[in-house]
From TrEMBL:
Presence of keyword Transferase: yes
Protein name: Tagatose-6-phosphate kinase
Organism: Fundicoccus ignavus
A cellular-component GO term for this protein: cytosol
Enzyme Commission number(s): 2.7.1.144
Amino acid sequence: MSILTVTMNPSVDIAYQLSTFKLDDVNRVSNVNKSAGGKGLNVTRVLKEIDEDLTATGLVGGDLGNYIKSQLDQGAIHHDFYQIKGNTRNCIAILHEGLQTEILESGPTISDVEGEAFKNHFESLLKDAEVVSISGSTPSGLATDYYVELIMIANAKEVPVVLDTSGESLRQVLLSGHKPKVIKPNVDELSQLLGRELDKDLNLLKEALQDSLFNGVEWVIVSLGSEGAFAKHNDLYYKVDIPTIDIVNPVGSGDSTVAGIVSGITRNYDDVALLKHANVLGMLNAQEEITGHVNLNHYEALFNKIQVRGV
Ligand code: ATP
């Protein structure tokens, strides 16, 4: 049995390093880094690095889709994507003067036939799955309740789902009768969902997680960046306090946290161990330049500095 990660709108991410970014002029770049991206693939890479057994699935198409598969092959990551007619997208990050300017293609439009076919493909992969992790937005062409349908299929086979998405896709799931086991919004996503501005105030967070929108979702884990996390597990509430660390690149830390949650579930960790495991991985990602990469040499030292307290 293994973990199934789902990335419906992957990308080939390009990072350009420029000392200065000149608008309305030619920018020449020699330092280029291309990688298989998309939130679900970040989760996938971290799961591989912590030695979890997994299969990556989702939709890929065209040359960039092939590039993604070849990158996964190179990393010895098992994958079984559904092939679409459209072309997988590029996302570009320009790193300049300490800033990050991003150009994100929206990606291919998925046809109804492809959407239906993926559901069958997903269902067939569930037979070997112990936990499913679904990350990122739904691609254009698919209905905003598409994740509701995937969760319905997984729940019917009693395979729990960890869902990390936002906006309308997340709202549709929470309003539906088909609940994931875990969601992991950050504070901005939680604020957007509830339609009110939330910060890191623990009383406000606790009150927010009592909203009926979360009924039936076993775990709500709100990641708080440098402040750790606030979590609800059924009727128990926890604050995860983390030490101050030097940050290199926090992009993808949320995805790394999701990898920790998924792995904690498969390892049957108790609440405290699961929350520490998830936060250590988020922090380790923030300490690396590469998104979706962790250096496990620092795992234990960080783990021992994290405090989980009931609130
Ligand atoms: P992303 O969308 O970039 O993946 P996110 O907003 O979903 O990120 P964050 O809350 O920023 O997720 O980070 C997830 C976890 O990573 C945090 O709960 C924390 O454990 C760790 N982390 C992130 N940023 C920092 C930081 N600056 N210092 C220490 N730990 C951090």
